[in-house]
Each structure stands twice: as structure tokens, then as C-alpha cells.
Specification:
Length: 373
């Protein structure tokens, strides 16, 4: 079977000059109004596409994936059944946590989870039951701690052993939205973005973008155009400003559901942010269509990014719509794809017989991956 290669059909902001290695503390300004077309093809930014088929167990099928993390040795995902699966990198099932309930070792809901840098501990965030639970990577319960953050939505473990919690200040009695806690749950630092105070009682919940890269945590609150970085110094600092230009929706349009529905399709709605050492990937919605931006940190002037329709091509001549949902610290991009959708895409491709044979007996989601150059 011949390999798939990536094809990104994108738009590039004009830039010139010699590329240089991006600095760790580089502050980024992304101007979305300055996009002009350019196509990136095949191995221009990444390697061939890989497929990982997760172990299939009829007694424990995977439901809809809610969130997942990928470490050096493991693929860890939480699904709609409130189960947490731990797979080895080859797709073999390593362990599973299925402890829904109200007991000391149980959770009501897996809102988010985080994995320690040594891959030995998993923390599960359960705001409905006001607690954080600790399990070993093999699924053994260790302990739990009660918490005061009923609206907590995200958790990350920092390399220094502290944890970061996010909860929307708009739905809490506390003004802060970020809490950095040490292992005994004492608050080391808390922060609140003043711009987020513009609207304090929205009629519906607007979540925050949240991702990790290079042992740091990054987040962007709704209605705020700044991405913030949280690192081992236990402080929150600005990392990136997103200038949506003429396509930015005024904050006032968010105050009324009817007004939002009427105007939202005419303005940028940020779908996701993912970051590698060299690139920042943006998925955007505009006029009910998806648009894909790629910002290159190494370009002269720091204003190189792409927009367009992302897909895959190569020997299969098939567009699988690959765009990274997750990027690990080794600069490998990942995306889960429904097994049925993948089988349909490859139905008429003769070179994909091995993949189609696996899909005939395993309907778990398939993990697609590609290493950035």
C-alpha cells in the first residue's frame, strides 16, 4: 500500500526574508485581514499520513470522543459514556477508567483531564461533584480532593507539579477565571482578564479555547482577542493577539440570542487553535464555511499564515479533510476520524485495501497523524 501525503490548499499572508528560529517568548500578532492565496502541497510542511487503529472491544466500545491527549507513549481519551481509555501508541488498549458514581473513587462527569509529565498520573476534573480525582496511568484510584470551582471547565498539569484550573468568571461568584494551585490545592496565583468583564451575564455559555504546547498552557476567552500563556513561573502573560479586522463581530452582538444568530455567520467565529514550535493553526467559521489559517512564527515580520480548504492528496488521490485537532510536544499533528466516514472516503481507492480490511472489523475512531517537518 502506498502512503498518503498531505495537501494543504491555503492562503498565505505575504512575507519575505530569511527564516529564523522562533523565540520561546515571542509575542505574536496575527492579522486576518492581510491574507492572500498560496497553496502548500505534499511534504512542504509535514510527513506522510499515518493511521492508528485503536483496539476494539465489543464489551467496551468507544462512544463519541469528547476530549483527548497524546503523550510520548499513550493516547488517552474521554468519551460520551464518561469512560477514560488509555491506549499505547500502537493502538493496544492499556487501561480504562470507568467509575461513574458518587463514591470517593468515583466521578459524576469527566469535564476534562490532564496527564503528568512522567506519564504516571491522570487527574480527572469533575466540577459537578466538586472534586479532582487522581488515578495512576493503569487505572488505579489514588485519591481525590474537594474543590470550590463549580464552573471549572479545564485542567492542566504544569511541569513544575502545579495545576491550572479555568472557570468562567461570568458564571461564578469569583472574579478570577484562572487558578494556579500547588499539589495541596493552595492557590499560588489567580488571574482575571479585564476585557472579559465587558459582559457579565450572557444568555448562553461561551467556552474558552484551551491547549497545551511545550509544557505550557494557553487559553483564549470568548470576546477577548488575546491568547494567554501559563508556564512554570506560575504567572499568566499575553502570548498572541488575534486581529480579526473587518470580520470581528462586535461584543454587543453576543448579548441577544436573536442578534447573534442573525449576524454570526458574517463574522469570524474561532473554532480552534493548535500550536507547534514553528506554526499556529487556526480553524475559523465564516458564512457557514470552514476556513483554515496557518501562521508561521519564523517568517520575517511574523505575519505569514494561510487560509483555505485543507485536505489530503497523494497516491490515494483522496481528500480526507485532515487538519490538526491536537499537536504533541514532538510536533506531530493528530486528528480522529470516524471509521465509517474514512471507509466511505476510501471506498473507491484500490491502494487502501489494508485500511479497508481493518475498518470492516473495527469501527472505533481512527487516529490520523503526520509529523511536521
Amino acid at each position: 500500500m502506498k502512503p498518503l501525503r498531505l495537501l494543504f490548499c491555503l492562503v498565505l499572508i505575504a512575507s519575505c526574508g530569511t527564516k529564523e528560529t522562533p523565540k520561546n517568548d515571542q509575542f505574536i500578532t496575527v492579522n486576518f485581514d492581510q491574507a492572500i492565496p498560496k497553496k502548500l502541497v505534499n511534504n512542504e510542511i509535514s510527513d506522510e499520513l499515518g493511521f492508528t487503529f485503536l483496539h476494539y472491544d465489543e464489551e467496551h466500545p468507544i462512544g463519541q470522543i469528547r476530549t483527548y491527549k497524546i503523550t510520548k507513549n499513550f493516547i488517552v481519551l474521554a468519551d460520551s459514556q464518561q469512560k477514560l481509555f488509555v491506549f499505547k501508541k500502537n493502538g493496544a488498549l492499556f487501561s480504562m477508567i470507568d467509575r461513574k458514581g458518587n463514591g470517593p473513587s468515583e466521578y459524576v462527569e469527566i469535564e476534562d483531564f490532564s496527564i503528568s509529565s512522567n506519564e504516571e498520573t491522570i487527574l480527572i476534573l469533575d466540577p459537578k461533584n466538586l472534586k479532582i480525582l487522581s488515578y495512576t496511568i493503569d487505572g488505579t484510584y489514588e485519591s481525590h480532593r474537594k474543590m470550590d470551582y463549580a464552573h471549572a471547565a479545564h485542567i492542566s498539569l504544569l511541569a513544575n507539579g502545579n495545576m491550572v484550573l479555568y472557570q468562567s468568571a461570568r458564571f461564578s461568584e469569583k472574579n478570577e477565571n484562572i487558578f494556579i494551585l500547588n499539589p495541596d490545592f493552595s492557590v499560588v496565583h489567580s488571574a482575571f482578564d479585564p476585557e472579559g468583564e465587558i459582559l457579565t451575564a450572557l444568555p448562553y455559555l461561551l467556552g474558552a479555547m484551551w491547549y497545551q504546547h511545550n509544557s505550557n498552557t494557553y487559553y483564549k476567552e470568548a470576546l477577548v482577542d488575546t491568547v494567554y500563556k501559563i508556564g512554570n513561573l506560575n504567572r499568566v502573560k499575553p502570548h498572541m493577539v488575534l486581529d480579526f479586522g473587518s470580520k470581528r463581530m462586535p461584543n454587543d452582538f453576543y448579548t441577544d440570542v436573536g442578534l447573534f444568530q442573525k449576524n454570526s455567520s458574517n463574522h469570524y467565529q474561532l473554532g480552534s487553535i493548535r500550536e507547534s514550535r514553528q506554526y499556529v493553526f487556526f480553524l475559523m467559521l465564516l458564512h457557514n464555511n470552514r476556513h483554515y489559517f496557518l501562521y508561521d512564527k519564523t517568517s520575517s515580520g511574523g505575519m505569514s499564515f494561510n487560509l483555505g480548504t485543507a485536505g489530503l492528496s497523494g497516491n490515494f488521490q483522496s481528500d480526507l479533510g485532515f487538519w490538526p485537532q491536537y499537536i504533541d510536544d514532538n510536533d506531530t499533528m493528530y486528528m480522529f476520524m470516524d471509521a465509517g466516514d474514512l471507509a466511505e472516503k476510501l471506498e473507491t481507492i484500490p491502494d487502501a485495501e489494508r485500511i479497508k480490511d481493518v475498518l470492516a472489523t473495527n469501527d472505533n475512531p481512527v487516529l490520523l497523524s503526520s509529523k511536521l517537518n
